[in-house]
Amino acid sequence: MIISIASGKGGTGKTTVAVNLALSLENENLQLLDCDVEEPNAHIFLNLTEKEVNPVYTTVPIFDKLRCNFCGECSRFCQFNAIFVIGKNPGKGVKGDVIHFPELCHGCMGCMLVCPRDAISEGQRIIGEIAKGKGEEGIDLVYGTLNIGEAMAVPLVRAVKREIRDEGTVIIDSPPGTSCPVIASVKDSDYCILVTEPTPFGLYDLKIAVKVLRKLEIPFGVVINRSGIGDRGVYDYCNDEGIDILLEIPYLKEIAESYSKGIPFIKVIGNWQKQFLAIFERIRSDYGVTKDLY
User: Fold this and answer.
1) Residue 82 structural domain
2) 60 CB contacts (<8 Å, ≥6 apart)?
């Protein structure tokens, strides 16, 4: 069973929920994937040991300028403006050139397919790395780290998800927001936990995230973090839309202090492990695949 943790905006408490939920299950078959590749931090709370690190590559075009006649077919095909072709103009002394912007390239290699002179071949470049190892309570953790300056997070998210085992429970800590990396992270999940806070900002982003999950036809529920602040807007919205509120995590100084020290709060405040386990059992009962669990 795959449970993803998502939120419409950053700083809402996704990783807090993902890590504390993972530690509450005490399942040796549990796997936690941190797909927030631009800022992974689940490993800070799990004290990962014996880490294995491998590079992740994406495909890029390699241009043979001796074969190229600078017709511009590749540039016209690329919808992401990753290729700029300067056509030949002997009268002005221009020999022609191809300029590639790898940060904009999605690696589809469509340019290679449309090139009439077979002047484009497939190459690779490193966009980041994947680290995996064993964390506290025997949790298998996998996380990706995108290289600084890279704009394309989706290939790395997909690479992290290729590490999903065939059996057991998988928790995915998704990137914040509702853009392409989030879609890539939550896709194929059996259930998604949306983390929000009871403020007008939280409500605004929650509504967007709900629309995305309904479009993807992924069942979901809401965890309200920092309850006790803000207003009743999130509660009223969930009630009107028939959205389950799975759990409320209060706005407590002890939780903030444990987070700042890299300690999951279920280890310092009693009874929370049972509450996380309860929402997992509820999700498993309604949406899980029993044979894959325990």
Assistant:
1) 65-118
2) 100, 102, 105, 107, 122, 123, 124, 125
Task: Give the pLDDT band (50/70/90) at residue 294.
Answer: very low
Supply the DSSP symbol for 41.
-
Residue 39 counted as domain residue: yes
Instruction: Tell me, yes or no, whether 101 and 21 share the same domain.
Output: no
8-state DSSP, 136:
G
pTM for the whole thing?
0.88
| Same domain for 260 and 141 | yes
Give the dihedral sign, CA 237/238/243/248.
Answer: positive
Shared domain check, 82 and 46:
no
Domain count, the chain: 2
Q: Residues 234-246: pLDDT tens digits?
A: 999 999 999 999 9
